[in-house]
Backbone:
């Protein structure tokens, strides 16, 4: 039976892997995983860490497994992934962040190490954690301690059993403190602003002052966002290096060919996208997660992220399919996408939905995406094929008229006009001749709005999918 090595990050966006198109970040280990494996981008029903992880472990969406917010437990009767693998004869281990209810030993893990928060022996203020190992305190960067524990487990594994190792990092969650030489490696050439950068979100989404949103000033300043992104990239490059150390342990013990390697995150993060900082929204950068599968039978250098509509809760039935374990069907809302990985299916769903507290609901059919904000009764409609950065709301009132569809929207108040200097777009000075900070092109390629009747039909279809999902999942906290 195949071993399973699962890495799960905290807050890592799907667009932070060099090989998959980000030419500003250094991720050689993840690049190689993507090159040697397949990439998907599932949605998480609720883009915060506890629900995201609960979906991965339970095979049920957040409304079915009971965990829709911090502190809410996974229903006790649910068999989690480590329980299922343990019953199948696997030795199960976890190193790092748990963040769900109870201790991981109560949820099917036989070996545990460096568990956050249960094993900490001192308060934490950054990523330097203190644990007790063999009766002695040990302090170090969380990524290094966790990956080191996982590497030792692999080196000293029980050779009579297959194993499942869940490596759960805190990186790149804030406070973003990577050690040198990683900490400053992006300072000489700061990462650019995200393509969908905005100085502030255009309206109140219902949770504008949650903790994550207070990590940067209002409105979002260019240099501040770029500094946040530099620190974020540094954390990712740092954990990329230490994930490589765990994979080295696989190679050195001759287990690589018999191990399924999976890399993912619990959710994404904004960091300046749409004028937001946190994950608590339903835009693509937050609600979708990176997911790489590498192992025997998995296609190499294949991308299914634009064709396969799937959720984080689809992971459990998929891995059971891959390992040849009995179908997990009782109460499971997840659908296996193993046939997609094998190339015999294009997708497993016609649509998928997501939710954030009572503030937002989302439905997408893969092409069009509807986001609903019940507090202000506002709908957004995006064409993800033509507008993957979600910059052109096709449901704006003025764009529903022919004259509104003929002209691009006006520049925002900070954008007066553009000049080109050595191929880089720069803002012209304000009327008082104060120079503005140079930055990449902010005025995106304009995507003409669709006819009002067509927009209404798409919205009707996606609202219907969302209403059906709400009834199915007893989602009564938000009505359309």
Residues:
């Amino acid at each position: 039976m195949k071993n399973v090595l699962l890495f799960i990050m905290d807050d890592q966006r799907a667009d932070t892997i060099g090989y998959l198109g980000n030419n500003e970040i250094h991720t050689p280990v993840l690049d190689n995983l993507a090159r040697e494996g397949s990439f998907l981008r599932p949605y998480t029903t609720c883009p915060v860490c506890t629900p995201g992880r609960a979906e991965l472990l339970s095979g049920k969406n957040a409304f079915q497994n009971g965990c829709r917010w911090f502190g809410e437990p996974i229903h006790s009767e649910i068999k989690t992934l480590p329980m299922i693998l343990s019953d199948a004869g696997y030795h199960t281990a976890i190193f790092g962040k748990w963040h769900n209810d109870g201790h991981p030993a109560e949820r099917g893990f036989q070996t545990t190490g460096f568990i956050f928060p249960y094993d900490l022996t001192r308060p934490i203020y950054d990523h330097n954690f203190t644990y007790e190992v063999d009766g002695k305190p040990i302090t170090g960067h969380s990524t290094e301690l966790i990956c080191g524990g996982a590497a030792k487990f692999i080196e000293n594994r029980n050779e009579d059993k297959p194993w499942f190792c869940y490596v759960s990092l805190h990186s790149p969650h804030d406070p973003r403190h990577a050690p040198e030489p990683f900490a400053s490696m992006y300072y000489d050439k700061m990462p650019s602003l995200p393509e969908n950068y905005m100085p502030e979100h255009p309206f109140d989404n219902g949770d504008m002052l949650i903790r994550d949103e207070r990590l940067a000033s209002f409105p979002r300043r260019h240099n501040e966002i770029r500094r946040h992104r530099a620190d974020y990239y540094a954390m990712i490059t740092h954990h990329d290096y230490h994930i490589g150390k765990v994979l080295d342990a696989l190679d050195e013990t001759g287990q690589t060919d018999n191990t399924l390697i999976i890399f993912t995150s619990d959710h994404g993060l904004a960091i300046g996208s749409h004028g937001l900082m946190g994950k608590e929204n339903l835009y693509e950068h937050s609600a979708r997660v990176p997911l790489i599968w590498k192992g025997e039978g998995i296609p190499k250098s294949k991308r299914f992220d634009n064709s396969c509509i799937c959720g984080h809760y689809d992971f459990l039935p998929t891995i059971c399919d891959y390992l040849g374990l009995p179908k997990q069907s009782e109460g499971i809302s997840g659908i296996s996408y193993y046939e997609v990985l094998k190339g015999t299916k294009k997708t497993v769903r016609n649509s998928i939905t997501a939710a954030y507290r009572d503030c937002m609901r989302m439905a997408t059919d893969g092409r069009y995406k509807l986001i609903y904000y019940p507090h202000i009764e506002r709908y957004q409609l995006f064409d993800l094929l033509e507008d993957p950065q979600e910059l052109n709301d096709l449901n704006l009132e003025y764009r529903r008229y022919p004259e509104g569809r003929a002209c691009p929207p006006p520049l925002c108040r900070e954008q007066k006009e553009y000049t080109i200097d050595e191929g880089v777009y720069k803002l012209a000075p304000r009327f008082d001749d104060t120079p503005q900070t140079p930055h990449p092109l902010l005025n995106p390629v304009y995507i003409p709005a669709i006819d009002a009747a067509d927009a209404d039909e798409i919205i009707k279809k996606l609202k219907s999918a969302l209403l059906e999902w709400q009834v199915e999942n007893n989602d009564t906290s938000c009505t359309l």
